[in-house]
Each structure stands twice: as structure tokens, then as C-alpha cells.
């Protein structure tokens, strides 16, 4: 192949071609490296060749990110496989993403799992930013989540809270512990279903099964941040270990239930019964008058799923953590009971007006959401190249904002690891998206539209639980968290209730 003739090197054409290709490859790589090294990337911990930083993450990712951030800064670059992911863990950095560059970061990342479970991104929470998403979100706010609508559902919250109190009453009589975790899921699900679909399903087999499916959806979504998603050539692992099959099965079973809800509404419209949120969605679908934005049957099912998943799980987790912290802090619990007694005098029923006056109750709820935000990570994707806190972020980069770590940032909070509701008594800091140090509901365009809806149930239920009953624990309280997209307690909250002497 290689021969010397007349003092000159004679190369075989194939060898020449191979050498040229190699030279071209190394030249391109060198140029790319040179370009990348000029970029002002955020600090990054050392990584492994194939895994990147995935091996440094534990199941409770918000906690892993916080410990890594302590060494590498509040804006840090990790690699999930080869995929760059920027982790944001300070109010200042979050403000650049959710306020200053809100439009650039208005998209959400998605995976095979989110596409499969959310009808190919036809819901609100993972839909790409654009006209379709805007149309659905404003429809949801107008027809279900506005202050006026939430006010109109107050009879539902009152009836469901009264039922909850009755169940606790019977536990009091039999001196058995109350499984508060279970009761909170039922209550929040019943309130959402009655408000959005006109009736509850939790007492029927299909509804009970659906509640279990919802838990599985949350688990699958958090497990979808796995090897196969970020290292494409290892995506076969999800096929072999049965993960993809599980996602398909859950998606089919969820679809069966949502079909049932829709069919029931189609029949009910024929019977001219009262109109609710699903009926309104169906009438838009039938008239196809959505202003050029097509809403099909899958869109309706995806929205229902969003409302059920978003409305039930997060609200019940907040109630669960609020009662957990109150039971761990008897002086806070006593102070809240004193506020209740002073507000109500000797009245039994709690009105919206009463709730409006209870500043300490509001402080307890805020502190619960600072200390235990149910959704610990907000996800975004950069739509174009942008600079954040002096660092270059390329289009397509995934961002994770750690709301849990931001709520415990020493720069914003005194004694951040203490549950101390009094910190909010003389403070204007609120969770509605303007104060970036407290963002349990997110902020900006993709912020949660369900705040008023959720607060309606949370405040009423907590006020009733503490007004009617004295509470004590049966055994030491374990506060271990269960990994998931919504963070619940690992073990159900069991407590013993006795009647208060009103
Ligand atoms: C304590 C209760 C709740 C918490 C902590 C919570 C939290 C959140 C968070 C963190 C987000 C993502 C925001 C972002 O990325 O910036 C979100 C989005 C959303 N939430 Fe909530 N949520 C709660 C209750 C509700 C309720 C009751 C509903 C409806 C009944 C609801 C419906 C939604 C929807 C539709 C979205 C998607 C918004 C979008 O992508 O534009 N949420 N929520």
C-alpha cells in the first residue's frame, strides 16, 4: 500500500481518502471545542464518559441538586448522559428565567413517557408554548379556576369538608387513628371531580382504580428521567425492563376511565342536565368554533387528566405536610387554634369571611409550601440562545429550577431549615409568582392557574380540623419523602383525634 519511488512517498488513493477524512474529523472537533471553550458555561462537577453526572443523583433529586449546588454554585451545569441540563437554585437566577427571559423559557421538555401519557402533548402542562396552549389555559381559567368560579364551588368544599369531619368523628368514637393521607386524597379528588365534572367517582370501582392509576402516573413521570431518555443508544433498556410497556398499559387504562367520563357527559347533555367544565369542552369540540385552534376528543381527555392530576395530588400533599408540621410543632398548632377560637367565638361553621381574617392560618400555609413545595422542580427548555447570570445557554438546553432549594436559600430566609410560620406575619412575601424566593406554584407564563382553587380547600380543611379536634400522634413521626413529581410522605400520616371542647 505504501511504497517509496524516486524519493517520494506514493500513497494508495484509499489510504489518502481515509487520512483526509480523519484530518477533517479532528479539525472539525478541534474547531467545535475551541468554540465551546470560548462559551461562558456555568460551573459543572466532573462527569463520567457515558453517564455524565447521572451517577451523582439519588431518588430525591431536589436534595442531590442542593448538595451539588453547595459546591458548584446556584447556577450549575450537569450532564444527563450527554444532554446538558442547567440547575437553578437561587431566587436571582430563577428571576432571570421566569421573569426576564420568560418568553424564551416558555417551553417544557418532554419524553416518550409524557407524550404517551398526555395524548401527544395535547394537555396544558406539557403542551408546547403557542396558540393551542394559550387557548386551553385561558379556557381552563375562565370556566373553572377564576376567583368567581372558585367562589361558586364553595358549597362543594363545604359539603366535602363536612363529610371528612364526619369520618374523623367516627374514628374519635372508636378511638382509632385517622389515616389523614388517605382522607386528604379522597377529599381533594372529590372537590375537583364535582367542580369540573359535576359528580364524584371515588365511591365507584372505576374511580377507586383511577386514583391508584394517578399515583402510578406520578411515579412513571418521575422515573422517566432515566438512562434511556438521556443516553439514546441505551433506550432499549426501557423496552427490555418493561418500563415502556408499563407506561403503555397505564396510558390505556387512564384512557378507558376518561372515555367513560366523556361518554357519560355526552349522554347527560342529551338529558339536558346542568352544564359543567367537561360539557363546555364538549360543546366547543362539537361546534369546532375554537377560533381556528382544533380541540379534539384527545385534547379534552388530556385537559381532564391535567386537572385531575394537577388538582388532586398537589393539594392533598400540601394538606399532608401542613398537618405533619403542625403535629411536630405543638406551639404553632396551639397558636393557630387560638386564632380560630378568637375569630369564630362560639360559632361552629367557618365562613369564607372568617378564613380571610386568619393571618396566622395563611402564614402556616405559606410556611408549609416554602418548606415542602409539592412540586420541587420546575422544568423549562430554552427556545433560543440566551445569557443567564452571565453564562451562555444554548437553544434547546433543559433547565430545572429547584423550588425546594430556593425556599431554603440562606440569602433569602433566616434559619431556613426551621418550620417557623411567624416569619410571614410581618412580611409581604407571597407565593403568587411575584416573589421569586417563594415559588411553589411556579411563576411566569407557565405558572400554576389553580392557586385560588387549591387555597379554597386547603384553608377550609385545616381550619376545620383544628377547630373541631385535638390531635396527637400515636408514635414518632417519620418525615421521609417519597420520590415522585409530587413529593408526598413516604408513610401515611396517622394521628389520633379527640373532640375539642368548643
Ligand atoms: C397546592 C396545590 C398546587 C400546587 C403546589 C401546584 C403547583 C404547580 C406547579 C409548580 C406548576 C408548574 C408551574 C411552572 O412550571 O412554573 C403547576 C402547573 C399547573 N397546575 Fe398547579 N398546583 C396546585 C394546584 C392546582 C390545581 C388545584 C389545579 C387545577 C384544578 C392546577 C392546575 C395546573 C395546571 C393546568 C398547570 C399547567 C400550567 C401551564 O403549563 O401553563 N394546579 N402547578
Automatic annotation (TrEMBL):
<dbReference type="GO" id="GO:0005506">
    <property type="term" value="F:iron ion binding"/>
</dbReference>
<keyword id="KW-0349">Heme</keyword>
<dbReference type="InterPro" id="IPR017972">
    <property type="entry name" value="Cyt_P450_CS"/>
</dbReference>
<keyword id="KW-0560">Oxidoreductase</keyword>
<keyword id="KW-0812">Transmembrane</keyword>
<dbReference type="InterPro" id="IPR036396">
    <property type="entry name" value="Cyt_P450_sf"/>
</dbReference>
<dbReference type="GO" id="GO:0016705">
    <property type="term" value="F:oxidoreductase activity, acting on paired donors, with incorporation or reduction of molecular oxygen"/>
</dbReference>
<keyword id="KW-0472">Membrane</keyword>
<feature type="transmembrane region" description="Helical">
    <location>
        <begin position="12"/>
        <end position="32"/>
    </location>
</feature>
<keyword id="KW-0408">Iron</keyword>
<dbReference type="GO" id="GO:0004497">
    <property type="term" value="F:monooxygenase activity"/>
</dbReference>
<keyword id="KW-0479">Metal-binding</keyword>
<protein>
    <recommendedName>
        <fullName>Cytochrome P450</fullName>
    </recommendedName>
</protein>
<keyword id="KW-0503">Monooxygenase</keyword>
<dbReference type="Pfam" id="PF00067">
    <property type="entry name" value="p450"/>
</dbReference>
<dbReference type="GO" id="GO:0020037">
    <property type="term" value="F:heme binding"/>
</dbReference>
<feature type="binding site" description="axial binding residue">
    <location>
        <position position="448"/>
    </location>
    <ligand>
        <name>heme</name>
    </ligand>
</feature>
<dbReference type="InterPro" id="IPR002401">
    <property type="entry name" value="Cyt_P450_E_grp-I"/>
</dbReference>
<dbReference type="InterPro" id="IPR001128">
    <property type="entry name" value="Cyt_P450"/>
</dbReference>
<dbReference type="GO" id="GO:0016020">
    <property type="term" value="C:membrane"/>
</dbReference>
<comment type="similarity">
    <text>Belongs to the cytochrome P450 family.</text>
</comment>
<keyword id="KW-1133">Transmembrane helix</keyword>
